[in-house]
Specification:
The chain is an alpha+beta fold and 169 residues long. The protein has helices at residues 9-18, 51-59, 69-80, 97-105, 146-161, and strands at 3-7, 26-33, 37-41, 67-68, 88-94, 116-126, 129-138, 165-168. Strands 1, 2, 3, 4, 5, 6, 7 and 8 form an 8-stranded antiparallel beta sheet that branches. It starts with a strand and ends with a strand.
Length: 169
């Protein structure tokens, strides 16, 4: 787990809200505080979908637990846009199943994909600062920390690839 302070709030906001750069991530939750506090629970409500739609999601190896950021992003953008900066926000993103599989397939990873419950990226804005915090959850305790190292490196590479500057705190 690492904590990264992003330099240049406008750049991270553009990457998060105006581009599709984070669209392949799943959303556990988003909490945005402007004139009210808005809570978005990213868990899919399966009763909303027909049986066929759920089967299609499963066939396409898409999450049947969380919504994709691409579906939630426009709502968050509507809540944040305007002349005033939000008081705060928090977005909890998870790596999609395909990225977990790819991470586990890395020769440097000593943990099977079936043991990786989630790879998480928390993005928080508060007091004028944006901080990204990585995390992982496994289905059982293992001494091997290769998943954490690979996830941390992936997130750093991802943010750098988006042209974002950051420093570890």
């Amino acid at each position: 787990m690492i904590a990264l302070e992003i330099k240049g709030n406008k750049n991270i906001m553009n990457a998060l809200l105006l581009s599709g750069q984070f669209d392949s991530f799943l959303v556990e939750e988003a909490v945005i505080t402007t004139f009210n506090t808005f809570h978005i629970d990213g868990h899919l409500v399966k009763d909303f979908y027909s049986r066929e739609e759920l089967e299609t999601l499963e066939e396409n190896q898409q999450s049947t637990v969380f919504s994709y950021w691409s579906d939630i992003r426009p709502v968050c953008f509507q809540l944040i846009k305007g002349k005033k900066t939000p008081v705060s926000f928090k977005v909890v993103l998870h790596a999609a199943p395909q990225l977990i599989e790819k991470t586990a397939a890395n020769p440097e990873c000593g943990v099977a994909a079936s043991l990786i419950r989630s790879l998480v990226l928390n993005i928080r804005y508060d007091n004028g600062k944006v901080v990204c915090i990585t995390g992982s959850a496994l289905t059982t305790f293992v001494m091997d920390k290769s998943v954490d190292r690979l996830w941390d490196a992936y997130v750093c590479q991802l943010l750098s690839g988006f042209g974002l500057e950051f420093e570890e705190i």
